[in-house]
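Task: sequence design from structure.
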């Protein structure tokens, strides 16, 4: 189906198969997928999850490894969008798993890659959510096509397999058919009774999430007190550079304090929340650099490096490393210290500085190289402000416009 669309629209298609190495037959499955993709007329590449596998939490670990491998391959190919073939049955199984206490997120038609920073600027499109798995198999049968059923999907040790078995036992009269076909097409709009939230991109790289933005430093965010929990979670993850959503109980506690008008300072998901009056500033929590010290990150000339999950740094000459300004601000020049003073105090120590291997004084990252904040653009993706492939044009820094779409398919 994707090949047919690509041909009609003059687009290149790349199929990606992830071999997790979890089944003795996985190499054969990968070969089967490669043959099928090429027979259909797509380019193809096989990816492999190597290294030790966890003893617990294997499905989640495999899922994240798969997303990272696909994201790396997509970025290498210059892709902006990855097609995934999740169906209505995947949505229904997720509903059963959440009812049993799982924190699994809901599938959406269009969402950012969950891999960070590998998936920066990359969106996932799921065009098959309106079709049931049985319909897909019937269609394949009609096409004379073969497919592989992973026996791991029947392993009741895993929550999704148990959910799948539960759904097969539901009679249609009790919502089985309707539940299978339920599609969550969340638009990211504010719920009734909530003030609308806007994302404003400023010239200095700031981003504000509120109806009337407040000034903030680069990589910092401001929110209104009536922010909804979904947006608050996205703000915390993006400002903190994390790849893990905050725990529900801790997020709810912060949300309650904001709605109650309380003045407080708190940390969550690597972010610092300062609530004073109507102003709520969210920045990177600088104290984590001292609590969990890391050596300066070496930079390769001409290669974009993501630092702290928040900044894309590029230098042209060798011998540079990047580190936080915290603990190094006194060594900056007078002009650079003055530039930092223009930022909120909580944001200053989390700014990136460049250090030369010859131990000369550090400089702000934008002085000796190119430093681009990823926070605002990542938040725009998380809050569904990028609703079409054409909206992604400026997300891959320095990238030239392209006229192709790549598709990632996995088993």
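Answer:
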């Amino acid at each position: 189906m994707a090949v047919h669309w690509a041909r009609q629209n003059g687009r290149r298609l790349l199929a990606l198969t992830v071999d997790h190495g979890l089944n003795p037959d996985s190499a054969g499955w990968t070969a089967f997928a490669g043959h099928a993709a090429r027979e259909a007329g797509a380019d193809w590449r096989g990816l492999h999850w190597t290294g030790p596998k966890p003893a617990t939490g294997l499905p989640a670990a495999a899922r994240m490894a798969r997303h990272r491998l696909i994201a790396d391959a997509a970025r290498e190919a210059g892709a902006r969008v990855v097609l995934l073939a999740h169906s209505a049955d995947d949505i229904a199984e997720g509903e059963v798993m959440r009812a049993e206490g799982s924190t699994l997120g809901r599938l959406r038609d269009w969402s950012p890659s969950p891999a960070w920073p590998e998936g920066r600027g990359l969106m996932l499109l799921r065009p098959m959510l309106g079709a049931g798995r049985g319909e897909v198999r019937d269609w394949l049968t009609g096409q004379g096509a073969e497919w592989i059923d992973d026996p791991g999907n029947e392993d009741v040790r895993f929550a999704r397999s148990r959910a799948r078995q539960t759904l097969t036992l539901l009679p249609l009269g009790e919502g089985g058919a309707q539940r299978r076909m339920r599609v969550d097409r969340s638009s990211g709009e504010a719920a009734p009774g909530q003030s609308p939230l806007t994302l404003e991109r400023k010239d200095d790289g700031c981003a504000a999430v509120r109806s009337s933005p407040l000034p903030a430093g680069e990589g910092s965010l401001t929110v209104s007190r009536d922010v909804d929990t979904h947006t608050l979670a996205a703000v915390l993850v993006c400002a903190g550079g994390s790849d893990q959503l905050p725990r529900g109980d801790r997020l709810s506690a912060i949300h309650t304090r904001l709605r109650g008008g309380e003045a407080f300072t708190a940390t969550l998901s690597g972010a610092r929340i300062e609530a004073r009056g109507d102003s709520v500033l969210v920045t990177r929590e600088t104290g984590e650099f001292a609590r969990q010290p890391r050596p300066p990150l070496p930079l390769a000339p001409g290669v974009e490096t993501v630092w702290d999950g928040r900044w894309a740094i590029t230098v042209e000459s060798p011998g540079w490393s990047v580190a936080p300004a915290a603990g190094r601000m006194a060594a900056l020049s007078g002009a650079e210290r003055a530039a930092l003073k223009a930022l909120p105090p909580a944001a200053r120590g989390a700014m990136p500085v460049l250090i030369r291997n010859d131990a000369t004084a550090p400089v702000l990252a934008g002085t000796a190289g190119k430093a681009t904040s990823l926070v605002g653009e990542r938040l725009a993706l998380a809050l569904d402000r990028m609703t079409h492939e054409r909206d992604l044009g400026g997300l891959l820094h320095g990238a030239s416009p392209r006229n192709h779409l790549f598709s990632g398919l996995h088993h």
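The two ends are 17 Å apart (CA to CA).
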